[in-house]
Amino acid sequence: MGKTTTDRLTNKQIEEELPSVPKWSYDKAHKRIARPFVRKNFLDAAAFIQQIANVAEKHDHHPDILLSDYKNVKVMLSTHSASGITQMDFKMARAIDKLAV
Hints:
Blueprint: H1 11-17, E1 25-27, E2 32-38, H2 42-59, E3 64-68, E4 72-77, H3 87-99
Antiparallel strand pairs: 1-2, 2-4, 3-4
């Protein structure tokens, strides 16, 4: 079931939650949290994106992902149905962080 605007976190709540995902940043203008990843090469970047896709399917929460310069992956999380950031975005950020090791 989709999240609603009542599930959306306030700016203060987001700032309080950010330390739990220290490599992520809050993009207030776009209402999302984001993290860049640099992988070894193109194939490693593509495999990493596939790992993220598998986690996203499991959680039914799908990030925006940008692959650039053959090995740079930027992951952006927001909850579209809530028009902002929810606890689910932070849960996904922590799950993605575990993949990056």
